[in-house]
Amino acid sequence: MMRIYCDSNIYRYLNSAHPSHSAELLNLFEILKDKILFTFSDAHLDDLKDSVKEYAEKDLGLMGTYVKDNYFLHDLIKDKGTGPYLATPLEAFQGKDYDAYNKTLENPFDIDSLLSGLDEFPEGKLMKDLLKTYYQLPIGALSGNLDTVTVDEKNKSLFDKLMPNYSPKMSLQDFMNGMWPYSKTLLQDKREFTQFRQQIASYMNKDDFSFENWGMAFNELLKQSPLGKSYLEVIENMLTENQKKDLYQKFNYAYTMLETYNITQERKKKGIKKFNMQSLNNDALHAWYASFSDYLVTDDKGLQVKANIVYRLLGLPTKVLSSKDLVNHRTLLLGQEETLQSFLISLNHDLKHSMQLYERKDPFKNETVNTYKTGHNYFNYFNRLQVITSDVYTFIALYCDRESHASFMMYREIEILVDKLNGMLGEDMDKRGAYSMNENDKYERDEYIREWYVNSMKFRLLTASKAWGSTICLGIDFKD
Fold it and tell me: What is the pLDDT confidence band of residue 271, given thresholds at 50, 70 and 90?
């Protein structure tokens, strides 16, 4: 199903009391809310963590009208990566413990507090004692001695901020606790983060590699800066071996360092926009979660530019739109909502003219499978067409491939597709009607989700496993 991810402000425009209210945008959302998936994420919740509860719940309630329970979350605790969950914005927000987050922010390296849960078990207590011993080792024994004598005056003030009272004899815990006050300031203080960017800019002339001057060529031009590497190489060198395999980490570094290195510079009137690192991180999360959807919709120019850069650098197909762009996509989106007549006309055209991607032959079955890229997204979902032929049959299958880490099926997509096909084809053969979320635990065991007969055609909606995950297929069999 077409997935649209909007930042928090877009949903505020739907409120008639908001100064930037757009009746045209609200009308489009109302038309699309049962035809496509609007998605939201933890980043939306973080936008509201400091808001008055009453106002936060109003914003979340309005958002929930459209995003329903299509929630994306990155699981850092159980290391399950980013995945879709079924929770409304209010449910997800109420499940967050921001008090604990703020407490941890005050003293993130308090070992006793962080590992307090281990005291309940003998093995846990032993592990805690071992970790505490490790944290008491001198920093010089772990990383070697930093040569502070050769640090020039230009960098001395920054060095002292980052590592106050540095000594190779200080413990790892003292070293980390010493670094935290400045790190926290960068997270929360706009002026301090701006000064940090200015410090970096004093070493690197952004005119030689900025995105504004050079577009995507900045990636290679950065080799001519004191960094001596392309932008992607710089990001790669920041990652540990485990992180190199983690697209989430790579994406977030790639996004935040654009502004840190002054490759991009957000503007406010005639000057550079001031913001803290926490704000930049949250924008990076919006862009990351949006990469699991087809469109990111935002009127934030900085988010538009940086998200577009990172999507292109990492080969992610998500398109970036403004709210006006989305309104202008109205005809395109509604044109992909099929009637039986328009569906058959488009299918016939694609069978004759669509671009072939590849061909597979199975000599044992005497079967040939040709895969094509469709001219448009049928039902705002299917973008691939397969024609399977043998000596005795011809079978057509439509499915969706987003060509990225987002090519997986979401349960609500089944629900919406069943509703659309019931509307186009009438009641299914088994008279099951609308799809129930209670069917989720058994659809894999069923031969198909729904089946319809229309004239000489049999339509069958089913799930299929691919190398990149599960997808929903619409099979069409032409009977004599």
Answer: confident
- Report strand pairing: 3-6 vs 295-297: parallel
Is residue 99 over pLDDT 90? no
pLDDT tens by residue, 409-445: 888 999 999 999 999 999 999 999 999 877 766 545 4
User: In sequence order, what are the residues at sequence separation of 6 or more whose Cβ sits closer than 8 angstroms to the Cβ of residue 410?
Assistant: 1, 3, 37, 70, 84
Q: What is the pairing mode between strands 37-41 and 319-321?
A: unpaired
> Does residue 306 lie in a domain region?
no
Give the count of alpha carbons within 13 A of 419, CB side only: 14
In a domain, 55, yes or no: no
Per the structure block, which two tokens stand in for 349?
Answer: 């055209």
Average pLDDT score over residue span 350-379: 92
pLDDT band at 359 (very low <50, low <70, confident <90, very high): very high
pLDDT digits (tens, 9 = 90+) for 12-49: 999 999 999 999 999 999 999 999 999 999 999 999 99
CA 16 to mean position of chain CA atoms: 29
Q: How far from 226 is each of 147, 203, 380, CA to CA, in Å?
A: 20, 7, 47
- Residue pointed to by tokens 């010089």: 140
Matching residue, tokens 């995003």? 67
- Show the domain range for 376: 337-478
Q: How confident is the model at residue 403 (pLDDT cuts 50, 70, 90)?
A: confident
Asked if residue 301 is part of any domain, the answer here is: no
**Into how many domains does the chain fold?**
1
Which 3-state string (H, E, C) describes the chain? CCEEEECHHHHHCCCCCCCCCCHHHHHHHHHHCCCCEEEEEHHHHHHCCCCCHHHHHHHHHHHHHHHCCEEEEEECCCCCEEEEEECCHHHHHHCCCHHHHHHHHHCCCCHHHHCHHHHHCHHHHHHHHHHHHHHCCEHHHHHCCCCCCCCCHHHHHHHHHHCCCCCCCCEHHHHHHHHHHHHHHHHHCHHHHHHHHHHHHCCCCHHHCCHHHHHHHHHHHHHHCCCCCCHHHHHHHHCCCCHHHCHHHHHHHHHHHHHHCCCCCCEECCEECCCCHHHHHHHHHHHHHHCCCCEEECCCHHHHHHHHHHHHHCCCCCEEECHHHHHHCHHHHHHCCCCHHHHHHHHHHHHHHCEEEEEEEECCCCEEEEEEEEEEEECCCEEEEEEEECCCCEEEEEECCCCCCCCCCCHHHHHHHHHHHHHHHCCCCCCCCCCCHHHHHCCCCCCCCEEEEECCEEEEEEEEEECCEEEEEEEEEECC
Q: pLDDT digits over 300-329, tens only?
A: 999 999 999 999 999 999 999 999 999 999
The answer to whether residue 162 sits within a structural domain is: no
The pTM (predicted TM-score) of the whole model is 0.85
